[in-house]
């Protein structure tokens, strides 16, 4: 059913089980009746085209849905104190029950949205609220810890510092202005302090360089939990307990989606792998916040964008089936965009069962091949005073992200580069990539970073994915094996292209620096495991 009438916009309020009022915007068809509800819960404001809320609301309403966007506790017009992910399970349960029993609701609720709006869905779903039929989390982290750290306690510094400084702090200032406890002049002073309008990138780098990482005077009042995050790298700390998704309790199907350059890519894919059943997975050539065909000059073709795949239509197909019982037009369990081929492909599942995990060995002469290494070693420096700068990848920047050319770093002597011979035929790598490295160091703690790169015939070195591992408690002369998870990827290396692996001691500010200065030795046999598709 479609509705040609205009949509009605109203402000709605509900009360949580502990007496906190949460405020939402409701859009619904301008006719009497009860409608299935699509609910999103956000800390980023209730603008119809705001962060994380990327479907066409008028089209959803015209299709007969009531669409609800709710300020989570302690944000926007909602009461209470923002705990950032922690506590969203109970509030999400209460919000679903409220939406299912509202006078404009037919009792069937779906949830959707990106990033924070994605994890609020998963946390609500694990509480099994009556009325929730399906969810659609996009670029959603696995939990609060993954927002802040890599496995092993290396900070996701670029992401969490940028989000804190440019999103959470600004939203809190807007909230205080609306409450009369701050002024526009306070906000203007803050924006100038973080470098707007002309020095933002430079200023964020300066903030990243502060040590200890918890020492951020600009954030101490506006984002007080930032310092707690930075001082608790152990995933077992009780701080992280309430922000972990319990997939075993989720019974509703999930349309999970992400991008190959999303910094929550592996957490998102992990949601699908743990849920399966009737759930679905879509992975495109996207970043966390960019869904166009062109990413920093790399054009993935006319099939690549959200517009090309009709992102709103994909969600309508999903929710029409689960909330209304309509036949689902698209029955594909997994859809991946294979970069290099620059085309979509359907799969029965993920990981792809026919993939072969092939070790490519890092040889001391800088070559990369399936021929086992016979030994040897090479050194790279780890210097927190002169770290290898981040260049692209899954980062939160405004002008340099995704598949950037790595050649500007080629003059640095603290990066080990290993290249294959030019390929004679297409070679597809689709799945989880890992570097298994044998290392020693002159310091008791050392970081090992790795990048998988597609080298084009013209020399362009296109970054595909990267990762980091921290090795602690090294004794002098001790050689230890460490696994660096570079995460999931799907890329077809074309004929005449080369596969390249870069190994270094830092990738800053994507990852927080190791404070120890030393020389790390990469020993053979070390190798990267590439899941190749026959």
Automatic annotation (TrEMBL):
Gene3D superfamilies: alpha-amino acid ester hydrolase ( Helical cap domain) (1.10.3020.10), alpha/beta hydrolase (3.40.50.1820), Galactose-binding domain-like (2.60.120.260)
InterPro entries, alphabetized: AB_hydrolase_fold, CocE/Ser_esterase, Galactose-bd-like_sf, Xaa-Pro-like_dom, Xaa-Pro_dipept_C, Xaa-Pro_dipeptidyl-ppase/CocE
Keywords: Hydrolase
An example Gene Ontology molecular-function term: hydrolase activity
Name by which UniProt lists this protein: CocE/NonD family hydrolase
SUPFAM superfamilies: alpha/beta-Hydrolases (SSF53474), Galactose-binding domain-like (SSF49785)
Species of origin: Nonomuraea roseoviolacea subsp. carminata
Lineage: Bacteria, Bacillati, Actinomycetota, Actinomycetes, Streptosporangiales
Residue ranges constituting the Xaa-Pro dipeptidyl-peptidase C-terminal domain according to the UniProt record: 316-529
């Amino acid at each position: 059913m479609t509705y040609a009438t205009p949509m009605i916009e109203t402000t709605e309020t509900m009360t949580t089980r502990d007496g906190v009022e949460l405020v939402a915007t409701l859009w619904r068809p301008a006719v009497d009746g009860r409608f299935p509800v699509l609910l999103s819960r956000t800390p980023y404001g209730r603008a119809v085209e705001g962060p994380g809320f990327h479907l066409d609301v008028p089209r959803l309403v015209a299709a007969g849905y009531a669409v609800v966007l709710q300020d989570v506790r302690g944000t926007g017009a909602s009461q209470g104190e923002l705990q950032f992910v922690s506590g969203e399970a109970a509030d999400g349960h209460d919000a679903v029950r409220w939406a299912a029993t509202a006078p404009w609701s037919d009792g069937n609720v779906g949830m959707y949205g990106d990033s924070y709006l994605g994890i609020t869905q998963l946390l609500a779903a694990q509480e099994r609220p009556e009325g929730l039929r399906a969810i659609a989390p996009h670029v959603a982290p696995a939990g609060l810890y993954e927002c802040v750290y890599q496995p092993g306690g290396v900070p996701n510094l670029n992401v969490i510092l940028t989000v804190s400084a440019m999103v959470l702090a600004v939203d809190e200032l807007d909230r205080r202005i609306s409450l009369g406890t701050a002024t526009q002049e306070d906000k203007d002073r803050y924006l100038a302090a973080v470098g707007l309008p002309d020095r933002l990138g430079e200023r964020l780098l300066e903030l990243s360089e502060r040590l200890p990482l918890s020492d951020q005077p600009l954030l101490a009042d506006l984002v007080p939990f930032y310092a707690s995050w930075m001082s608790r790298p152990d995933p077992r700390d009780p701080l992280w307990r309430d922000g972990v998704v319990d997939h075993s309790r989720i019974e509703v199907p999930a349309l999970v989606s992400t991008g190959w350059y999303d910094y929550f890519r592996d957490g998102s894919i992990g949601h699908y792998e743990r849920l399966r059943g009737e759930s679905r997975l879509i992975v495109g050539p996207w970043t966390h916040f960019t869904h166009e065909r062109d990413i920093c000059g790399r054009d993935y073709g006319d099939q690549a964008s959200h517009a090309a795949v009709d992102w709103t239509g994909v969600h309508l197909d999903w929710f029409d089936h689960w909330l209304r019982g309509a036949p689902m037009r698209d029955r594909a369990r997994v859809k991946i965009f294979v970069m290099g081929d620059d085309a979509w492909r359907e799969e029965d599942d993920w990981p792809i069962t026919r993939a072969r995990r092939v070790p490519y060995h890092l040889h001391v002469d800088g070559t990369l091949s399936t021929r086992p290494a016979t030994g040897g070693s090479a050194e790279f420096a780890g210097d927190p005073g002169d770290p290898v700068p981040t260049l692209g990848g899954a980062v939160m920047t405004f002008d340099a992200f995704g598949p950037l050319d790595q050649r500007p770093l080629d003059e640095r002597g603290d990066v080990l580069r290993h290249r294959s011979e030019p390929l004679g035929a297409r070679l597809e790598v689709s799945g989880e990539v890992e570097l298994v490295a044998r290392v020693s160091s002159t310091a008791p703690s050392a970081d090992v970073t790795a990048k998988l790169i597609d080298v084009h015939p013209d020399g362009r070195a296109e970054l595909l994915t990267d990762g980091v591992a921290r090795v602690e408690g090294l004794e002098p002369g001790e050689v230890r094996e460490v696994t660096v998870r570079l995460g999931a990827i799907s890329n077809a290396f074309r004929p005449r292209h080369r596969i390249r692996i870069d190994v270094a001691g830092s990738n800053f500010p994507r990852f927080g620096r190791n404070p120890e200065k030393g020389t790390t030795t990469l020993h053979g046999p070390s190798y990267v495991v590439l899941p190749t598709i026959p």
